[in-house]
Amino acid sequence: MKTEQQTTITVTVQGKVRYLAAGQSLSEVLTALGLISPDGKATGLALAVNQEVVPASDWPLRSISDGDYIQLFQAIAGG
Fold first, then answer.
1. What is the domain range of residue 38?
2. 69 within a domain of the structure (yes/no)
3. H or E segment at 33?
4. Judging by beta carbons within 10 Å of its beta carbon (0-12, 13-18, 19+), is residue 30 exposed, middle or buried?
């Protein structure tokens, strides 16, 4: 039985369903959507995938998967 590799996946980013190419990293997705700068810098942002916080240092390494729910949060300092 031959299995075809999935080329498009469905993820939810900031509450919106998106159809994206499979095999992309979080950094690639966020850059393509204009949510972070092309150099990958996201000062003051936190990100969760499926309600699990992902450190910014892992964004280039973490691949997205079909059904992922990605949420960005703006860090706010207070005192």
1. 8-74
2. yes
3. none
4. buried
Q: Rounded to 5 degrees, what are φ and ψ at 68? A: -60, 145
Structure tokens at 58: 């892992």
**28-66, pLDDT tens digit by residue?**
998 988 888 877 777 788 899 999 999 989 999 999 999
68 within a domain of the structure (yes/no): yes
For residue 65, is it within any domain? yes
Mean of the per-residue pLDDT values for the chain? 87
Which pTM was predicted? 0.80
Alpha carbon of 6 to those of 3, 13, 14, 15, 52: distances in Å? 9, 19, 23, 23, 24
Nearest partner of 72 among 31, 19, 20, judged by Cα: 31
Instruction: Tell me which DSSP letter residue 71 carries.
Output: E
